[in-house]
Fold each of these.
Amino acid sequence: MIREFASADVFYLLLAARWTIGLALVAAIGGGLLGLLIALARILPFAPLNWLAIGYINIIQGTPLLGQLFVFFFGLPLLGFPVGAWTAAAISLSLYASAFLGEIWRGALQSVAKRQWEAGAALGLTYRQRFTHVVIPQAVRISIAPTVGFLVQLVKNTSLTALIGFVELTRASQIITAATFAPLTVYLTAAAIYFVICFTLSQLSRVLERRLHGAR
Amino acid sequence: MALVRMEGVVKRFGALEVLKSIDLSVEPGEIVAVIGRSGSGKSTMLRCVNGLEPVQEGLIEVAGINVTAPGADLNALRARVGMVFQSFNLFPHLNVERNIMLALKLVRKTPKAEAQDIAVRMLEKVGLGDKRLAYPDELSGGQQQRVAIARSLAMEPTLMLFDEITSALDPELVGDVLRVLEGLAGEGMTMMLVTHEMSFARNVADRLVFMHEGRIHEDGPARETLTDPQTAELQSFLNAVLH
Ligand SMILES: Nc1ncnc2c1ncn2[C@@H]1O[C@H](COP(=O)(O)OP(=O)(O)OP(=O)(O)O)[C@@H](O)[C@H]1O
Ligand SMILES: [Mg+2]
């Protein structure tokens, strides 16, 4: 039975958006922690570790996210690990984020010039002190914009999980569209919600950058 | 006893032999100007003195510390040997004062208030007492270079190494930096400085070392050596830079 698109539907979409945000948050945190390890594994002077990290990054970056979702959603149960849509989505988006964040942060760390390392060394700072007091603060500043840029992509990419039946904003829109047959209204509403989330993120990055610039 | 002693030092980058058996002693209070063509190994020699470059052969001893011994505590050595580079290398995320305080706090464990006093004193010494809170990118090249010198001096070094510290500066800013060096010379600081400022070498340095193809080709009192070079290579180098 077809019904009118009503304010209750907007509310339903907003509730579903919580899962979009939740999933993006989990992937950002999980991917962030793993991404730090990936960045270190790329940088530390130990070749096998470097190769391992490069291989991992290539696999993740070289395959579609949707494929990765399917692998975890359909593949893990075949291996005897039954997973729900949420778990499969959380795992695959985290791995996906880790490869990209790892590369962003590696780039930031390596873009801090060799001369900065040397300036620290010439003052008698230990390797660790050079890393934590000279290189990392500069790398953080460099990496804010690309990191937030990627997180915005991540928020939008959570919509792919609709295809394995995870009910987030996009899946919820499909469900309401089926009931109301008002695709334009529904998807415009969903788009507006996505926009608000992503716009807030990029504004946050502005503020953060400005604050760090004030304190250099 | 010599403050710096280099004996038979050989430095290679892969197959390229950049330092070919360097022997050099620097006495406390001595000011040694190092000159030579581009690529003759001046920077490399300086960088070997504080262990920034490991050497393949020979012995380097600085202030009684054997730099070339395996497991030498290079960080302890570097805390006592200041080095200033051509490209300033201030920490861009820290203001001037905190640039100076960083190593004091981390390496010397100086309490914050005391480190701050030292920073102020050093800045006044290089004529930048009013730039305490500025960030490096708000300063001219000459000012940045003087902060870099202040940052090194704050560690109370027994030896200062300067590698072409005025080469990247606009000509009108060179004088301020050289005046700081003259002040240091007046205080009896031991210095090794790579420079292209021949008049500075002549007037301020005690001793002149001319490097040529990885060797010390001439070594003598600055004024005499510059006035009366003993080798054809130094003669032609001086002709090239002075004319
Ligand atoms: N890290 C490095 N790896 C390989 N070769 C190097 C390295 N550093 C210096 N060299 C080489 O060593 C030689 C001496 O270099 P060095 O920088 O000591 O010369 P320099 O006398 O300081 O020259 P300049 O006046 O141009 O600064 C050059 O041939 C240079 O290319
Ligand atoms: Mg040089």
Amino acid sequence: MSSKNERLRDEILKRSGVNPKKCMRCGKCSATCPAYDEMEYHPHQFVSMVENGDIEPLINSKGIYRCLSCFACVDRCPRGVEPAKLVEAVRLEVIRKQGANHLTADGVEAFLDGEIPQQAIVSALRKYSK
Amino acid sequence: MQRIGVFVCWCGTNIAGTVDVKAVAEALKNEPGVIVSTDYQYMCSQSGQQMIKDAIAEHKLTGIVVCSCSPRMHETTFRKTAASAGINPYMVEIANIREQCSWVHKDMPIGTEKAIILGKAAVAKVNLNAPLTPGESPVTKRALVIGGGIAGIQTALDIADAGFPVDIVEKKPTIGGKMAQLDKTFPTLDCAACILTPKMVDVAQNDKIRIFSYSEVTDVKGFVGNFDVTIRKHARYVKEDVCTGCGACIEKCPMKKVPNEFNLGMDNRTAIYIPFAQATPKVATIDPNYCNMLKNGKCGLCAKVCAAGAIDYTQKDEFIEEKYGAIVVATGFNPISMEKFDEYAYSQSKDVITSLEFERLTNAAGPTAGKLLRPSDGKHPHTIVFVQCVGSRCEACAEKGKEYCSKICCMYTAKHAMLTRDKYPDTDVYVFYIDVRTPGKNFDEFYRRAVEEYGVHYIKGMVGKVTPEGDKLKVQASDLLLNKQLHIDADLVVLAAAIEPDKSARPLATLLTASMDTNDFFTEAHPKLRPVESPTAGVFLSGACQGPKDIPETVSQAGAAASKVIGLLAKDKLTGNPCVAHSDEMMCNGCSSCERVCPYGAITYNDKEFRMPDRTTLIRRVASVNPAVCQGCGACTVACPSGAMDLHGFASSQIMAEVDAICK
Ligand SMILES: Cc1cc2nc3c(=O)[nH]c(=O)nc-3n(C[C@H](O)[C@H](O)[C@H](O)COP(=O)(O)OP(=O)(O)OC[C@H]3O[C@@H](n4cnc5c(N)ncnc54)[C@H](O)[C@@H]3O)c2cc1C
Ligand code: SF4
Ligand code: SF4
Ligand code: SF4
Ligand code: SF4
């Protein structure tokens, strides 16, 4: 692994708090994912690609904006890997480079419905603010 | 003063590689009481032992210190050596300079220094050792087997075969366990009943075996060779010795809508019932939760039709007390509840079933008379999806699943898939797997046959969700090799549910003071070398109560447990461990602290008369230890506030002498 990839991987892992080594490659996350066909890399691939430092393709994929942040993969994973957190961390990698979010604080309220988990709201705001 | 010989072992390079053994022998020469101190390559070898014997004779030794491996390895060896040379075996002490020294240090000077200190401590202890003689206790030549599945059945048959009486306590109305519910069995596909029922008949006909069915163990006292057990026989409201099992009562019973647990609730039975045709004992049982007569005093039909006059609505639970020399636990397993796996719609659709339910659906004595029909509408399913590892290997959600692999499901799923394709070639069968784990004789060949000869579609991936829609089950799954998400319209979904120990195992373990792991499987005394013994003497393990197992493994373990029991019952007397607690009556103040901490219940109290100096008498409550029950754990000696309690062989003074020697 190049040192750049290694740095990127460590950053994504730190940001997400995910340990990809816990993944047993069962594919239940990808079996669950409602956005599967719209993501060129599927949740289980996020896990192994991040583990291998293969993160550039993920950064450049459209899938990171197609993920619904529904957290179904997090809920169903038998090993507690939390793939959605990796999707979110890769998305942040892009967004942090763009500077500030496009959405202003005033615009936030319109999106809230009280049911969605907080992390989902935050990541949804990031995606739809483009 | 003792005359002590010190023998330092090299253990090849195991010890000598990091400990200067010559320096150790030299240093220990100067310790108080040491007459001779020497070293040798392998103390445990014949010549090493001879060296000890010769030294005992030559120097008239009274105590021995061997600096070698852990006492768990060779303490018995050296005790026997000493005994054969005329010294009491409890005058031998081992200084563990391998596991606790050479193996954990890399540096020779440090290792040597520590070995010397350990040797000094052992010498200090031997100086205070006294000869000990172990007591003896008789052995009750009868065994108890708890659980009457294939494990308990096999163990009981083997023990009875050796000539010892055995009692089986089974909580259900019949013995047979899970195997009685299975249809065919991997890897040979012989019918479960055809191979199980002859064994059940053997049990029933064997005059050495008594079956206490519909019964539980409620109390266990005593110790290896001498257990006192209380068995509660639940009232079945039918006289067992009178009922002929004719079934006339069952035909007449008006309460016909009782969920039939033998068919996992997929059909109904009557309030009075015999679980299945070959039930053993073949005796009816009245279910008090449903019987009209027992609930409201109305009905009594079964008593009227019973020609034998076996029905007795006034029957009460009976308590039986019996003595046993050995106890075998064979309480088996159950599939876990699927209620928490709602993504598979188990609670939403009748057509999502567990594998055990599938066994009943394909069994000739099952709810569909062996025809594979959907529970919802009785139609033949054309697309069946099997999901492996449901709730197994599940680390994230302890309240949902189990971290371990359930071991049997890969094989029974291959069996179900193969049998389906064999009987109904027009059926599409999919199996979703994470890994296919089929180690075992003829196991992988069996699985490959399912794929290659029977055309079962094995897909590497998982099912994510099942949604009932109309009369279909929409299955959304991943195919990791094709990197695709699949959508299958299935008619039937079968879940290979993880298995767990019976819920009654935990309270039973407490009664037996047998230990369990965090998953409630019974723990064996040693995972490799003592796999069928529990760490509690006299308690043995058989079958799936010790860990997930298929039938071949269960039967081998059952036989192994039986041979251990036979070995125990063949003895007339058991030699105890003399290193037990004893209390000094003059110091004991009867506070009960020791009784409260003793995990084996070895301590009792007596009122004892003491003569005072002024010739009056005083009655005091003092502790006394039953040496046959005491395991020498020493908990009481620590708890005793007045210092009255002490351990033979590990007296407080001996321990303190060791500590002093180390800290000097
Ligand atoms: C769906 C399915 C299919 C299978 N197919 C196969 C196969 O094809 N081939 C194969 O080799 N194996 C198969 N197995 C595995 C097989 O069922 C087990 O290996 C076997 O049943 C283990 O036997 P056991 O006696 O240890 O446990 P069990 O069969 O569970 O028996 C335990 C007995 O103890 C009783 N009991 C429990 N607690 C108490 C208590 N406290 N007091 C008194 N009695 C108690 C229970 O009522 C039960 O009768 C299958 C298992 C399943 C779930
Ligand atoms: S959070 Fe994203 S990746 Fe995970 S299941 Fe939902 S859509 Fe798919
Ligand atoms: S569900 Fe979890 S363990 Fe299974 S492939 Fe996805 S991340 Fe890995
Ligand atoms: S008395 Fe109870 S068990 Fe007997 S026939 Fe009536 S309801 Fe059935
Ligand atoms: S035996 Fe097979 S199906 Fe069962 S838990 Fe293990 S891997 Fe999964």
Amino acid sequence: MIQHVDNPVVEIHDLTVTYNKKPVLWDIDLTLPAGSIIGVIGPNGAGKSTMIKSIMGLVPLNSGYVKVFDQDLQDVRSRVSYVPQKESVDWDFPASVMDVVLMGRYGKLGLFTRPRKADKEVALDCLRRVDMEAYAGRQISQLSGGQQQRVFLARALAQEADLYFMDEPFAGVDAATEKAIINLMKTMSEQGKTVVVVHHDLQSAVEYFDWVVLLNLRLIANGPVPEVMTGQLLQETYGGKLTLLAEVGELLTKKEFPSREKE
Amino acid sequence: MEAFWIIAAGSLVAIPCGLLGCYLILRQMAMVGDAISHAVLPGIVIAFFISGQREPISMLLGASILGVITTFLIEFFHTKARLQTDASIGVTFTWLFALGIILISVFAGKIDLDQDCVLYGEISYVPIDLWITANGTIMGPRVMYIMGAVFIVVLLFIIIGYKELFLTTFDPKFAAASGISVALWHYLLMGAVSFTTVGAFESVGAILVVALLIVPPATAYLLTENLQKMMLITAGLGVVVSFFGYYLAAWLDGSIAGAMSLVAGVLFAAAFLFSPQEGLLTRKKRMAFATNKDS
Ligand SMILES: Nc1ncnc2c1ncn2[C@@H]1O[C@H](COP(=O)(O)OP(=O)(O)O)[C@@H](O)[C@H]1O
Ligand SMILES: [Mg+2]
């Protein structure tokens, strides 16, 4: 089940990525539709983060190319936003919430220019959209996991992009934050923005996403949720790792799947 | 007057070293500062050999180039030879340092350079090491000019690149994704560290430079959670260390560089024990709190 779309926001062609000669992504060919909320799903180590990084130009490609808005990333960078896994930074870093959100403006500012009042207003507005306005002056070391994720999202919003890549935004956050994030994504998608989310909880995936990419080294499936989230394709993605998956179709219909999978 | 010049020279070394050290600490690269400060030696010797005299500009330039090469080699051994970062640092700086020593001994007969003057600048000589122009005017201690220039360059670098240094230090992936070159800022920072350490090396000696690069920023890190404040505190600590270090040495009639390093260490220990946020005692409480919260 690999569906191709016309006028895709992202087009990946023949992509292979290796770390120390070990392939992590193998011959990926896919297109993603504009304006959707897209889930990238697969087991740990499947190459989900690597796929996002290769779209963002953060890892060298062994072969293939990536196009965003039908152009090279270089030429459309200001329209694309990236939310790394929140574990990828040191939250004891001496910075305030406002400092971090303002980083979303740096790409537009360029060298020599400091963030201006207008940038601070954008940042505050973005904090408001994730319900963190009251925390603007707080040090980031004092935040909970959910609040850290909201700050990262506010920083991404401050980039005012059209396409967002979020790496595991739901990992280690509380239920309220999860709900807030998903509502935010829905609003963004209604405004015509595209949100690509790395995720690994199967049950909520069915609820949250319009479109799903199943990945495990190779591309297993790419298409609308009902066609992709089937027992057989999930089995193929998770292989022997998740024996329960034989019953996943059943679980999905019954909606009794145990909620959060811990990494 | 002697006290004034020595304290002023100490501060002029401590402030730029400490400001750059803040970034090294936050990038978990404290040892790179130490490595660079040794690895620049062949650069100094070669610059000296080419220019034929102890002329600060070519020495600073030679050192900066070597510093960037050092950084590059550390990166290279780490990524290409899959060596751990600390091993890669160890390999790189020891052989560059050795190369410098060999160059000195090979050229020792031909040029006026010895290990002592390159490696062990001595802060107590600051007031008598004067810059005298060709027509005999005495311009004051030479070190004040060298370190004054280093100080201004480092300050400008940090002011101009504040945003980029902040972002590439905190979140290099996001920086790269927003189109900011992480490698460029990395090498600029390492170039600045080399340039500063070598100027400082030659002025006040090796031990003091390594201490000033790391200890005041580490102390400031314990005292605040705001980068700008951390840098201001570091600068303030640099002056305090120079002042009390000088008088401690005078009182003990001991080495000034040693006394300054000692004062820096004592201030760090005090911050470690009593800091309001990160002090040993406070932290214990906070950790207990965090565990309760998580469960
Ligand atoms: N920087 C790296 N160097 C070497 N191997 C890596 C690196 N990053 C990821 N890998 C490996 O690549 C594989 C895919 O990683 P990743 O894309 O992070 O997977 P996922 O996000 O799906 O969990 C894993 O086996 C991981 O160990
Ligand atoms: Mg991942």
